[in-house]
Write a structure and sequence with these properties.
Layout lengths: L2 E5 L3 H13 L3 E5 L2 H10 L4 E5 L7 H10 L6 E5 L4 H10 L3 E4 L4 H19 L6 E4 L2 E4 L4 E4 L2 E3 L3 H11 L6 E2 H8 L10 H13 L9 E4 L3 E4 L3
Amino acid sequence: MARILIIEDDRAVRTAVTDAVAAEGHTVLAAETGPAGLEQGLTQDPDLILLDILLPGLDGYELLRRLRADAVEAPVMMISAKGQEIDKVRALELGADDYLTKPFGLAELMARVRAQLRRARTGAGQSMAGLKRHRDLEIDLDARTVRKKRTPVELTRTEFDLLALFLGAPGKAFGRDEILNRIWGHEHIPGSRTLDNHIAALRRKLEDDPARPALIESVRGVGYRLTRS
């Protein structure tokens, strides 16, 4: 079972999420302000963080930035009423692993929680082995680092996992369902825009012109592919 930190100022939402998480046997940590959530995130070693954006004292974006700056690697799922794509992309670029828009169903929430926990546990014991080069990128699969034209590029855990998946078969068109299953697990909710938002964030970091992607291409009716060297 996991230690899950819920940072949410709405008491009704916090109580409902706490009950759903606890019902699956997890230990619940809770905070209703940004500063309190940051303190627990830095000191309580959570396995997963559920984070609202509109918080008193410190908003979720800044809280997430500080967590990642302090090397907190726990998966973070943003939960917010802010549903615009720009809000989602900003959260993903700051290091969020998933984004769920309010109102949401508890069944969907818990499916995503299980998927994030499974990913974290699977990835912790894997070594992908190898230094790969693709065009102007240098990717160290063991150290999980990326350099573009010799300049380090900071990728989130999910962004790196997507890049590593594509690197395994340059030129192959990966279907959306295949990507979702490989990266998020079978419990991820079909039809989610999560994949597209992560691809958009990844392109902004790796493409010379994100509006005209030449590295990670969309394949109409299928999904995405990494262009060949």
